[in-house]
Amino acid sequence: MKKLHPAENVLGVHWPPPGSWPAWLRAAGLIVAASILKPLLEYAGGEPLPPYITFYPAVVIAAFGGGPIVGVVTALGTVVAAWVLYGSVPQALVNLSSEMIYTVTSVFLAWSVGRARLALELASALRERQEYTGGSRSTGSRTSSRSFSRWFGRSRVKSTASTSSGIS
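The structure corresponding to this sequence follows.
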């Protein structure tokens, strides 16, 4: 049996690598599906629904499936889709605040979920590496720190001793 790359086996589901073309296509498909689903739910329920009710799940799934950048672009795409399809362009200060609340929360949600997906991939890759190396811990922490830094775009955190000596 072929072993999948950690990007393809997060939570036992085949996900495309973050930022890949399949991830972008799935995100676009989720926006279209959420746009179609809202009127169907309104018809079934007999009452109007908030313009973004079906877009939150689309943003979460797109961010988890495609990473933080795909998720944020999907969140912004859902704002535009709601404005165009449902006429939710803010016409009053009250509407403007609800539009801004959705925009801010969906972007935050997309970024958080996308980063969580990357963290799961990193944990899976580190576990797989540890299994491959036989669980040796001698170089694991240094390598783990570098891997963490590479995945999350931050420079490696200095040790407490060197930081405190630099401050004094």
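Residues 93-132 form the longest helix (40 residues).
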